[in-house]
């Protein structure tokens, strides 16, 4: 299956991805995770992306399309993939269609994590991240066994620099202006499934599984 996860910051894309990946053996490509890794390694790409990310704005289409084009060449991504955080503009969506067309492939399903903006601040400001695995926790909704420590590796957790109430505002603005039209783009193709993303994580997982088995 070739899947796309779309939703505002904090809607649960990164939380559901590993579960879908396990169930369907797909490769998981999260542009946000890849960009954060580039920023912390101070690669040329990371240096270019950092300013926009810190402000909660989108990185340029060319940069992220380049990352995805490269990543999708991996053999593990040939049979199927989960794209988390891409495409985020209509230009990116059109480019993805072009790339897939060359392989005789297309997007099968778009999971739209529908949720009210008002819920997102609490989710974002309470999030803790294990950077190398991408595992996320939440002080209230999904606390680690020991505060500030990853359950699996025992390594320290961090908070994302863009996870403040102020930067969230810009990220939401970018979502409504630039990413919502992408949902329209795929709706016209009849492949969007709407999820009630304000429900507890396990209930969202059940919804995802229903959509993917139908
Ligand atoms: P990115 O990393 O993609 O961030 P985002 O889209 O803002 O999404 P988040 O990662 O914040 O949210 P999520 O939906 O994954 O939530 P999560 O599951 O962790 O992008 C970051 C930046 O990179 C962008 O701002 C941009 O600058 C750049 N970028 C990336 N891709 C780009 C592109 N294609 N084009 C241009 N620029 C790009 O959940 C959040 C919290 O809530 C967690 O603590 C979790 O435990 C908790 N939680 C999750 N689900 C539930 C639930 N059901 N109930 C209660 N709590 C829950
Ligand atoms: Zn995420």
List keywords for this structure.
47% helix; 8 helices; binds BIS(adenosine)-5'-pentaphosphate; single chain; alpha/beta; binds zinc ion; 214 residues; globular
Summary of the model, kept short:
The protein has 214 residues and is of the alpha/beta class. 47% of the residues lie in helices and 15% in strands.
What would you note in describing this structure?
There is one protein chain. The chain is α/β, with parallel strands linked by helices. The protein is 47% helix and 15% strand. It has 8 helices and 7 strands, in the order βαβαααβαβαββαβα. The chain has helices spanning 13-24, 31-40, 44-55, 61-71, 90-102, 120-125, 165-187, 201-213; strands at residues 2-6, 27-30, 81-84, 109-114, 127-130, 135-138, 192-196. It has a 5-stranded parallel β-sheet with strand order 2-3-1-4-7, with helices on both faces. Strands 5-6 form a two-stranded antiparallel sheet. Helix 2 packs across helix 3 (44-55) and helix 4 runs parallel beside helix 5 (90-102). The protein is globular and about 45 Å long. The mean pLDDT is 95. The structure holds BIS(adenosine)-5'-pentaphosphate and zinc ion (ZN). BIS(adenosine)-5'-pentaphosphate is lined by residues 7, 9-15, 31-32, 35, 52-53, 56-59, 64, 85-86, 88, 92, 123, 126-127, 136-138, 141-142, 171, 200-201, 204.
């Amino acid at each position: 299956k070739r899947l796309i996860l779309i939703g505002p910051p904090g809607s649960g894309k990164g939380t559901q991805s590993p579960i879908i990946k396990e169930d369907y053996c797909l490769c998981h490509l999260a542009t946000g995770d890849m960009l954060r890794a580039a920023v912390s390694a101070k690669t040329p790409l990371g240096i270019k992306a950092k300013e926009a990310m810190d402000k909660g704005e989108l990185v340029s289409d060319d940069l992220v399309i380049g990352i995805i084009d490269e990543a999708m060449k991996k053999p593990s991504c040939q049979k199927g993939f989960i794209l988390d955080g891409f495409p985020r503009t209509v230009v990116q969506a059109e480019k993805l269609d072009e790339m897939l067309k060359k392989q005789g492939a297309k997007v099968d399903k778009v999971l739209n994590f529908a949720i009210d903006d008002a819920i997102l601040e609490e989710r974002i400001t309470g999030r803790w991240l294990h950077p190398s695995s991408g595992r996320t926790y939440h002080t209230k909704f999904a606390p680690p066994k020991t505060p500030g420590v990853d359950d699996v590796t025992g390594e320290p957790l961090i908070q994302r620099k863009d996870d403040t109430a102020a930067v969230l505002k810009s990220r939401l603005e970018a979502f409504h202006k630039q990413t919502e039209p992408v949902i329209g783009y795929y709706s016209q193709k009849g492949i969007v499934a709407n999820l009630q993303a304000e429900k507890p994580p396990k209930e969202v997982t059940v919804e995802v599984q229903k959509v993917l088995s139908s």
